[in-house]
Amino acid sequence: PTYEDFCVDGKKVVDYICDYVKDIAKRDVIDYSLKPNFLHSRLAKEMPVKGEKFDKIMTDFNRKIMPGVLNWMHPNFYAYFGAGNAYPSVIGEMLSSAISSVGFSWASCPSLTELEQIVLDWFAKALDLPPFYLSKTRNLSSIGGGAIQNSASDSIFAAMAAARHRAIKTLQDQDSDRDAPPSKYLPKLVCFASLNAHSSVEKAAKILMVKLYAVEPNQEDSMTAVALEKAIKETRDKGLVPFFVLSTAGTTGQSAFDDIEKIGNVCKKYPSIWFHVDGAYGGNSFIVPEMRHLKRGMALTDSFNVNPNKLLLTAFDCSCLWVKDMKTFLEAYIVGSVDIEDQISTGIVDLHNFGVPWSRRFRALKLYFMFRMYGLKALQDYIRRVIKVGEHFAQLVKADTRFRVKNKPILGLVCFRLVGKSDETRRMAALPSPVDRLNEILLKKLNETNSIHLIPSHAQGKYVIRFVANQENCSEEQVEKAWRLIQETATKVLSSSSP
Ligand code: PLP
Q1: CA 251 to centroid of ligand 1, rounded, Å
Q2: Does residue 81 line the site of ligand 1, with CB under 6 A?
Q3: Labelling 121: which of 76, 320, 387, 393 has CA 20 to 30 A away?
Q4: How many A from CA of 152 to the centre of ligand 1?
Q5: Matching SUPFAM superfamilies, A to Z (predicted)?
Q6: Is it true that domain 3-69 has CATH number 1.20.1340.10?
Q7: Cα dihedral sign for 145, 147, 152, 155?
Q8: Ordered strands of the 413-418 beta sheet
Q9: Cβ of 257 below 6 Å from ligand 1
Q10: 307 lines ligand 1 (CB under 6 A)
């Protein structure tokens, strides 16, 4: 295949993508009947020895692979957090792949390194983050700034690893045994996050071999400062060293926000603690002033991550991580003869020092095209629509007395639960775990229609069905249609669940 072929085939792909997006509502969201290994039986066991024609491969792609694709961009996809496929970000992806420059250092691709700083500064300002997160703001002897990571999990890992490095260094400095290895201190280190924090926190703690204290959330699914401080004191009484606190701005299961200001004030009392906020989903909402009360206290944080691919229309992957003190952060990652002072003094940090990967894609391009082609105003309008549509859906649920809303539906995410009418509830009481089971059945029946996709969660201690309306074109009419299907299916489920 040559680039002359690409001129022809590439255009066909763009046409395919445009048709896919235009007609997506005509497809099923999902084929719920698919079983694992479905694709193995459809495709060849070996790669072809001789290259094949593009058109033939495209036909196979369409007939064999696409049927197993869960259509995340479908208007009736309400599972997980809807992803983004806004075309400015797709263009950024195309250019990044085609240019294919690898940006591990400034010299390896100057524009890649600098554009990443520039778009992260633009974004930090649009989110109204503290100035110390901007790349050229000097904090005492260091600078702050950000870089794009593959995923929120990577961002959280990167922050926790830097915090662990700082904590071990402090313990080593205090130790009379000057030759003690870093591993000596690992059993002492403990980090804290809500039980509702994403499992990537547990994964990071596991890989980094530190203890995780999962703090019990309150009735509204948020971690409170009181519960956190109690947990910190408990661990300190045992001789452990709290080194990292993660609070979540928009939990995965419930879109609950921890109180950053109160938690930050607790963290400030303990100098050994690095305070990180995971705003993978909810952090995007700070782009509108009316959501900024939820980020009060951000000045108390040491690092922050947000994924525009979860709530700002941008194609995956795109997790923005900012750190306040770049020098401390870099110390965890710098190897070989890299001079930190040199990096700090130029204000240009080579990206291979910003976390685990050496090579970096030109991911900033997708944010560059997104931010320029939409502009701040359109992105704000989109967030406001997500909020409005979510509130509208919650109202629909509340209007049907057979259902309960089990979270604060402030950001397009509604956790609801079918409880049945009182007589139905009595009948259901004869079933083993009645209401949970009823909701499991309802969810299965809905997904089996192939025309809607939802997943379960837990909110306020209950099994719930989780509905997220964050499509680019999400609308009140669209969720009303989905709600009618949910109501009809619930009626059928209730009438068939006899004692
Ligand atoms: N943090 C939160 C709040 C999330 O909701 C998620 C995933 O949905 C993650 C972290 C992990 O994100 P990623 O898939 O980018 O690693």
Answers
A1: 9
A2: yes
A3: 387
A4: 5
A5: PLP-dependent transferases
A6: yes
A7: negative
A8: 403-405, 413-418, 462-468, 455-459
A9: no
A10: yes
**Phi, psi (5° rounding) for residue 75?**
-60, -20
Topology of domain 382-496 in CATH is Aspartate Aminotransferase, domain 1 (3.90.1150)
- Residue 100 tokens read as 């294919």
Specify the range with the lowest mean pLDDT, choosing from 72-81, 214-223, 330-339, 479-488.
330-339
What atom of ligand 1 comes closest to residue 307's alpha carbon? 15
Residue 152 Cβ < 6 Å to ligand 1: yes
- Measured torsion, CA atoms of residues 385, 387, 388, 390, in degrees rounded to the nearest 10: 120
Between 364-399 and 110-126, two packed helices, what is the crossing angle to 10 degrees? 30
* Ligand 1 neighbour 353 (Cβ under 6 A): no
Reading the block at residue 328, the tokens are 């401390």
- What CATH class does 102-361 carry? alpha beta
* Mean of pLDDT values over 219-238: 98
Measured in angstroms, how far is the CA atom of residue 200 from the centroid of ligand 1?
Answer: 7
Q: Tens of pLDDT along 149-202?
A: 999 999 999 999 999 999 999 999 999 998 999 999 999 999 999 999 999 999
The token pair at 197 is 């924090």
**CA 202 to centroid of ligand 1, rounded, Å:** 12
Give residue 499's pLDDT. 44
The domain limits of the chain are 3-69, 102-361, 382-496
